[in-house]
Amino acid sequence: MKQIDTTYIKKCNQALQKANLEIKKYSQDDFMYEMYRSAIIKEFEIILEQSGKLLKKVLRAYFHSNKAVDKLLFKDIFREAGLHSLLSIDEVERWLIYRDNRNSTAHDYGVNLADEILVLIEQFIKDVDRLIEVLDASKR
């Protein structure tokens, strides 16, 4: 199996965790709140893209050809991870919700949508930590 480098997703998750801690220090009408909210949304988007790409590499071991894996869409990648017990069904369901929220942010950068994502961030950080464990375990 090709070596999976988790360095970047780990750095992004650290940045997300830091921004999530910092945003709590400010009120919603403070400019710094807006700055950290923007950072959280951006890291959320980057991590989602990275997670799909990295998990796809892990799934190659479960398929008969690379071509079959390359055809998988984002949600299918996570469904397959659940089928192969890399992630729990609950984790897969949350990742699908994260993706739906990401798709919404791509089309509407409104404050309400950004605030909806902030509600998900605490669990998202935990799920990213768990995904990193899965990715790192695949290296062994």
Descriptive overview:
The protein has a single domain, classed as Up-down Bundle (Four Helix Bundle (Hemerythrin (Met), subunit A)), CATH 1.20.120. Helices cover 76% and strands 0% of the residues. It contains six helices and no strands. It is elongated.
List the helices and strands and how they pair.
Layout: H1 7-23, H2 31-59, H3 66-70, H4 74-83, H5 89-107, H6 111-137
Helix pairs in contact: 1-2, 1-6, 2-4, 2-5, 2-6, 4-5, 5-6
What is the number of domains?
1
- CATH architecture level-2 label: Up-down Bundle
Strand content: under 5%
- Helix content, binned percent: over 70%
Average residue pLDDT: 90
> What would you give as the CATH superfamily?
Nucleotidyltransferases  domain 2
Radius of gyration: 16 Å
Structural class: mainly alpha
Number of strands: 0
Q: Output the helix-strand order.
A: HHHHHH
* CATH C-level class: Mainly Alpha
The count of helical stretches stands at: 6
Silhouette: elongated
The fold-level CATH name is Four Helix Bundle (Hemerythrin (Met), subunit A)
CA distance, first residue to last residue: 10 Å
Poorly predicted residue ranges: none
Most strands sheet: none
What is the assembly state of the chains in this entry? single chain
